[in-house]
Design goal:
The complex is a heterodimer. Chain A is α/β, with parallel strands linked by helices. In chain A, 41% of the residues lie in helices and 22% in strands. Classes of the chains: A alpha/beta, B alpha+beta. Chains A and B meet through helix 1 of A and helix 4 and helix 5 of B.
Chain lengths: 217, 476
C-alpha cells in the first residue's frame, strides 16, 4: 500500500514516514502544501496523511483541490483539536481526523481501516478460498498455518486481495507497492509473484497475459 | 431610594394623579357650593322684593282690624285676595315689621301657605337688622344655624326679613362631596392600573434588550440587538451595548486564536517526542538509532521549554508586572551590551553593525529591556542579507528616549504590517523552524514595552529595509 505523508514539521514527517515504512507501507513524503498537492494529484496513493497548517498551500486548500480530481482517502493529522476544525476538515472531504499528539498504533489502525473501506472491505480479515489475509497483523495463513511471506510479497498479496475478483495491472502494483525512492526493476513483480505461488499454491494468483493478475475464489 | 424605575415612575404618576384629582374636586366643590348659595340668595332676594312691592300696594297699617276706614283703594276682600295670591317659594319664610305707624305691626308669611299672621306685636324686631347706613333696597345676608336670612329696609319704614332652611342644601352638598370622592377614587384606581401598564410597556424594550444581553454567552457573542425597530431613545443604548459586544467578540476570538495557536505549538513537539519514542520502542534498535531518537527528543523538549518561557513571560506582563524590579538604567551601556552579544553572528554573516549612543537614563527592568533590544537586533540581523548593515541608535526626543534599530534588509510586506505584533504571527508561514521562531518575539517586545509605559513601532519599506523604534519615558 502506498501512502503520502504531507507534514511540514521535519521531525514529525520523518517519524511518521518511518513508522509507516516499518509497517509495510510504501511511503512518499511532502514537506509543504505545494509538493503535497503535486504528488497527491500525480500518483495513485491508497491513502494520504495530511497536516492542516502547511506552508505555501494549507491543508484545507490542498484537500479542496485534490477532491476535484481524486477520491483518495485522506486522514487529517492536525494539532487543531477544535470541533469546528474537525467538522470543517471532514466536510471538505477528509475521511478521518486525528489530533496531535497521537499514538502511532492508532494512526496505523485508522489508515488500514481507510484503505480497507476504500476497497470495499469491511473486515480486517479477507478470506479467499483456503487463504486468509489478516491486514491487522499483516500475516497470511493457508489451511490454518502461517505462510512465511516477505514484506513485499505480503504487500502484493494484500493489494490483490483487496481488489479480489478484479484485474490488477502490473503498473497498478508498481504504483502501490513501491515508493518514489524505490529503484525497482521491471521484472521484480514477476519474481515476487512466482515466490508467492510457491508458498500459497499455484492457482492462488492467476495471470492474464499482457494485462495483469487476478486473485479470486 | 427606590431602585425600580417602574415603581418610581408609578409613584410619580400616582402623586401627580392625586394632585390633579384633589384640585379638580376642590374647585368643582367650591364652585357648586357657591352656585347653590347664590341660588338661595337669589330666591331670598326675589322674595324680599316681591314682598316690598306688595307693601307698596298695601301698607301694613291697613291690616289693622280697626282701620277699615283708612282703606283707600281696595275692599278688604280684594286686599286679602291679593295677599293670599302672594305666595313665596314653599321653603321661604318671611317676617315684616312696620314701625312707621303709632304701633308696630308684625306679619309672618310662610312659603306656599301665604300670610299666617298679621298683628300688632310690641317690640317685635327681626333677628337681623339691616345696616343702618345701608341704602334702602339693599339686602344684608346672614347665616343663622341652618338658616340663611336676608333683611332689607322696605317701603315706609318697614323691615323685611326672609329666610329659609339650607339644611337640605347642605345635605346635598355633602352627598355631592361623597360622590366626588368615590368618582375620584375610581379614576385614581383606573389611572394607577393604566399607569402600571404604561410603565410596564415602557420597560418592555429594555427587558427585551437585557434578555438579548443575558443570552449572549461566550459562544454566541456574535449576536446583536436589533436596532431597526427600536424607539429612538433606546437606539443609543442598544448601539453602546452592540459596540461592547463587538469588542468582547473581538477580544474573545483573539483569545481563542491565541489558545489555538499556543496549543498547536505545544502539541507539535509533544507529538514529535511521543512518536519518536513510540517508534524507537516498537522493536529493538541499534545504539545509533537510540541516540538519534534521544537527540530528537532533546530538541523537542528545548522547543517546548522556549515556548513555555515565552508564554509565561507574556502571561506575567498581561497580568501587569509590578515595577518593583525597575531601576534607573543607563541606556548606552545596555545597548552596548546587546550589540556585543551579536558581534560574532554579524561578523560571520558579513553584516555591518554600528551603534550610536548618547548618555541618557530610563526607569525599567534591565533584563526585560535587553531582551527587547536583542529581539529587535536578532530580527534585523536575520532579515539583512550579507553585505547589508544594521544601525542601532539612541537619542532623546522631547521627554522620550528613542532606541532605533534600522536594517537594510528585505522589509515587511505591507499586507503583514498590521499583524506583526500579534502573538504567533509569522510573516514567513513556513514557520521559520530553523531559527526556532514561534512568532512570539515581537509580541513579547510589545508587552514588555507596554508595561514600561513606552511605545513600540516600525517603519518599513519592502526591499529597502525596516526601522523598529521604541520610545521610553526619559528619567532625569
Amino acid at each position: 500500500m502506498r501512502v503520502l505523508v504531507v507534514e511540514d514539521e521535519p521531525e514529525l514527517l520523518q517519524v511518521t514516514a518511518q513508522t509507516l515504512r516499518e509497517s509495510g507501507f510504501a511511503v512518499d513524503e511532502a514537506a509543504d502544501g505545494e509538493e503535497g498537492l503535486y504528488k497527491a494529484t500525480t500518483w495513485e496513493y491508497d491513502a494520504i496523511v495530511l497536516d492542516l497548517m502547511l506552508p505555501k498551500i494549507d491543508g484545507w486548500t490542498l484537500l479542496g483541490k485534490l477532491r476535484k480530481k481524486k477520491k483518495t482517502p485522506v486522514l487529517i493529522l492536525s494539532a487543531r483539536d477544535g470541533v469546528r476544525d474537525r467538522v470543517q476538515g471532514l466536510d471538505i472531504g477528509a475521511d478521518d481526523y486525528l489530533v496531535k499528539p497521537f499514538e502511532l498504533s492508532e494512526l496505523l489502525a485508522r489508515l488500514r481501516a481507510l484503505i480497507r473501506r476504500a476497497a470495499g472491505q469491511a473486515l480486517p480479515q479477507i478470506k479467499i478460498g483456503d487463504v486468509t489475509v489478516d491486514t491487522r497483523t499483516r500475516t497470511v495463513t493457508k489451511d490454518g498455518s502461517l505462510a512465511d511471506l516477505t514484506g513485499r510479497e505480503y504487500a502484493i498479496v494484500e493489494c490483490l486481495a483487496l481488489q479480489r475478483g478484479g484485474l490488477v495491472t502490473r503498473t497498478y502494483l508498481y504504483e502501490h507497492i513501491f515508493d518514489e525512492n524505490d529503484d525497482s526493476l521491471s521484472n521484480l513483480i514477476e519474481v515476487h509473484v512466482s515466490n508467492i505461488r510457491k508458498k500459497l499454491g499455484k492457482d492462488f494468483i492467476k495471470t492474464r497475459r499482457g494485462q495483469g493478475y487476478i486473485v479470486d475464489d | 431610594m427606590i431602585r425600580s424605575i417602574r415603581l418610581r415612575v408609578q409613584l410619580w404618576y400616582a402623586g401627580v394623579l392625586v394632585g390633579v384629582l384633589v384640585s379638580f374636586a376642590a374647585i368643582t366643590y367650591a364652585r357648586v357650593n357657591t352656585m347653590k348659595l347664590r341660588e338661595v340668595d337669589v330666591q331670598l332676594e326675589v322674595a324680599v322684593h316681591s314682598l316690598d312691592a306688595t307693601l307698596k300696594l298695601f301698607p301694613l297699617k291697613e291690616f289693622e282690624p280697626d282701620s277699615d276706614k283708612e282703606r283707600k283703594n281696595l275692599s278688604r276682600e280684594e286686599r286679602d285676595k291679593h295677599l293670599a295670591d302672594l305666595t313665596l317659594p314653599k321653603e321661604v319664610e318671611a317676617r315684616i315689621i312696620d314701625t312707621s305707624g303709632e304701633r308696630p305691626y308684625f306679619a309672618i308669611w310662610r312659603g306656599d301657605r301665604g300670610l299666617l299672621k298679621a298683628q300688632h306685636v310690641p317690640g317685635a324686631e327681626p333677628r337681623t337688622m339691616p345696616n343702618t347706613y345701608a341704602p334702602a333696597g339693599s339686602l344684608t345676608f346672614t347665616n343663622v344655624g341652618w338658616y340663611r336670612e336676608a333683611v332689607m329696609k322696605g317701603t315706609g319704614g318697614t323691615r323685611i326679613l326672609v329666610g329659609r332652611s339650607v339644611a337640605a342644601d347642605y345635605a346635598e352638598r355633602g352627598r355631592f362631596a361623597g360622590l366626588l370622592f368615590i368618582v375620584g377614587l375610581l379614576v385614581f384606581a383606573i389611572g394607577l392600573a393604566g399607569g402600571w401598564v404604561v410603565a410596564s410597556r415602557m420597560m418592555q424594550p429594555l427587558a427585551a434588550m437585557s434578555a438579548t444581553a443575558a443570552s449572549s454567552s461566550a459562544r454566541k457573542l456574535s449576536e446583536r440587538i436589533e436596532t431597526q425597530n427600536l424607539d429612538t431613545e433606546l437606539v443609543g443604548l442598544a448601539e453602546v451595548l452592540n459596540a461592547m459586544f463587538e469588542r468582547l467578540d473581538t477580544a474573545f476570538s483573539r483569545q481563542q486564536q491565541f489558545t489555538a495557536d499556543a496549543s498547536h505549538e505545544l502539541r507539535t513537539p509533544i507529538a514529535i517526542l511521543r512518536s519518536h519514542v513510540e517508534l524507537a520502542l516498537s522493536r529493538p534498535r541499534t545504539v545509533e538509532e537510540y541516540r538519534q531518537t534521544l537527540e530528537t527528543c532533546l530538541r523537542a523538549a528545548n522547543r517546548m521549554s522556549t515556548l513555555v518561557q515565552g508564554l509565561l513571560l507574556l502571561a506575567r506582563n498581561d497580568t501587569g508586572q509590578s515595577d518593583e524590579s525597575y531601576r534607573k538604567l543607563a541606556m548606552a551601556p545596555l545597548l552596548e551590551e546587546c550589540v556585543e552579544l551579536f558581534r560574532p553572528i554579524v561578523d560571520t554573516k558579513e553584516v555591518q553593525l554600528t551603534l550610536d549612543v548618547i548618555p541618557c537614563f530610563v526607569r525599567g527592568n534591565a533584563d526585560s529591556l535587553i531582551q527587547v533590544v536583542s529581539n529587535l537586533l536578532s530580527n534585523a540581523v536575520h532579515h539583512t542579507p550579507p553585505g547589508g548593515a544594521v544601525f542601532v541608535s539612541l537619542s532623546v526626543r522631547d521627554n522620550d528616549v528613542r532606541v532605533a534599530v534600522r536594517d537594510t534588509g528585505v522589509g515587511i510586506p505591507p499586507e503583514f504590517q498590521s499583524h506583526i505584533f500579534e502573538r504567533f504571527y509569522r510573516v514567513d508561514k513556513s514557520r521559520a523552524r530553523a531559527s526556532g521562531g514561534f512568532g512570539l518575539g515581537l509580541a513579547i517586545c510589545k508587552s514588555i514595552i507596554d508595561s514600561h509605559r513606552g511605545q513600540i513601532g516600525f517603519e518599513s519599506e519592502p526591499g529597502k529595509g525596516t526601522t523598529f523604534w521604541i520610545h521610553l519615558p526619559l528619567k532625569m
